[in-house]
Each structure stands twice: as C-alpha cells, then as structure tokens.
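= Protein in question =
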Amino acid sequence: MTMQMTQHDTGPQAPSSEGRQVPTHAGQQARPMTGLVTKQLPRLALIIAAVSVLFPFLALFSAALQPETNLSPGLEWPSDPHWENFATAWTTAGFGSLLKSSAVIALGVVPLALAMATLAGYGLATMQLKAKGPLFALLMLGMALPYEAIVIPLYYDLGSVGLLGTYWAVILPLIGLFMPFGVFWMRTHFESLPRELTEAASVDGAGSWRTLTRVLLPTAGPALTTLGILYFMWAWNQFLLALVLIQDPAMRTAPSGLGKFVQQFGKNIPLLSAGTIIVITPIVLLYLFFQRHFIKGILQGAVK
C-alpha cells in the first residue's frame, strides 16, 4: 500500500524500486482515450463522406417530386409528391431515344476498347519491342489531349468518309481517346503478375495468344471490370462529341439531350431534376451491381 501511494504521488515516469519506469495513472487513462479517437476517426470520416455523397442525391430527388409551380424547391420533402414529373420529363425530352443512343454508343465502345487496351497492354508488358518506350510515351501523351482540340478535325475527317451523323462518328473517336488510359491500366496489371506465370506457360509450349487467354486473362477480372465500368460511364456521359458529330437530335446521347432540355425548361427545377435523375439512373444501377468488383479493381490498382 505504501508503494502504490509513492508511485501515484511521484507523477509521470516515476521510477520503481528496481529502477524501471512504471506507467502512471494519467498515462493509463490517456492511452485508451487515444486509441478510442484513433479507432473512431476513420468511421467519422466515412460518415462525413457518405453524407456528402448522399445529400445531393436526396436533394435532387426531393426537388424532382415538387410541383412544377415551385420554382425554388429547397430541401423540404413534398407533402404531396408529384411522381408524374418523371413521365412529363420522359415524354417532353424524348429520353427513350436518347437513352437508347447512349446505350448503343456505350455498348459499342466498351467491348472494342477493352479488347484493344488488353492486347496493347499485354504487348507492352511482356514482349521485347525496340520502340516500346517511345510508343508507350506517345500513348501517355494522349491522356493530356483535350476533346476540344480534336472536334473540328474529326468533323471534317468523318464527313469525308461518310460517317458523320452516325453512331460510329462517336464510337470510333471515343475508342481512340480511351486507349491511353486503358493501355496504361492493363500494362500495369500485367507487369504486376509474377513473371513465373509466363515463363511456365512458355516452357509448356504455349504461344503468346494462349498465354494471354489461358493464363493471364483469368487473373484480370477485377482490372477489366473496373476499366469497363469507367469506359461505360465516360461513353454514357459523352456530351461534346455527340453534340457536334451527330446532327439528328434523336440520335444524340442522353447528357446532350439533357442540355437541350435545360434550354427549354431552365426555370422548371422539378422537371429538370426529374430529367437529371432519369439520365444518371443507369450509371448508378451499373455501379451498384458491380460495386464489389469495381472497388476490388481500384484497390488492386492502388496497391500496385
């Protein structure tokens, strides 16, 4: 009892009778508090991030259910939700044909872009090429190329070959524009795989194509899924190329149609909110369906 009182009275870093430093009462209380703060801080950050993401969606959904006469909906949930705003926006803007055009362009871009990015990334990661370094550097320069710089040349080039006003006028340029990031993404994935995989396949007599399709591609599921979702979102949200290279308004993408819808109903906030939700719903559903694969692919890329 006498020894305990002595340690308490001496304060922090009081030596014991054997000359060792013994924990003080204040230090024993500070450590659990520090651990509790360290443990709860990530949860608090996640809650803040989740609220910052969900709050705009809830505000947009609330505004879409307000009466059309309410020009300043605010954040108040309507007592009488006007679900007919979605039907009005759908028919007025012609979102049926616009969503179909977006789907055609996205489904045309994603498979071709994935296949080309996979082949190019595989070649740059595993094959001995003399111009591999300059070729990869040239591809990376494409990531800095803005859309605005190529719209006018594309307009005249595609017009000269008769593709202007067709879906291919948007699909082909988007595949080329998506290549730099896709090649970089897939090259990084293939380079991260153990070299013993390709060496063992070579010893077994497998050629380059067999090594890619039977050995390496089965490991590339998360990387391909993440890249495919990104390609789909970028193609679906295409605005400028669809607006310039396709003259028929019914063949344009949903975001470009939404731009025209904004010009017609710029002051009708409930109708604009309903149209915006219609345009983004396919992207949200796609992300929710593939969210585990998407996060897994992003985490693999971050670790690499």
Remarks:
- Residues 25-64 form the longest helix (40 residues).
- Residues 1-19 have pLDDT under 50 and may be disordered.
- The chain has 14 helices and no strands.
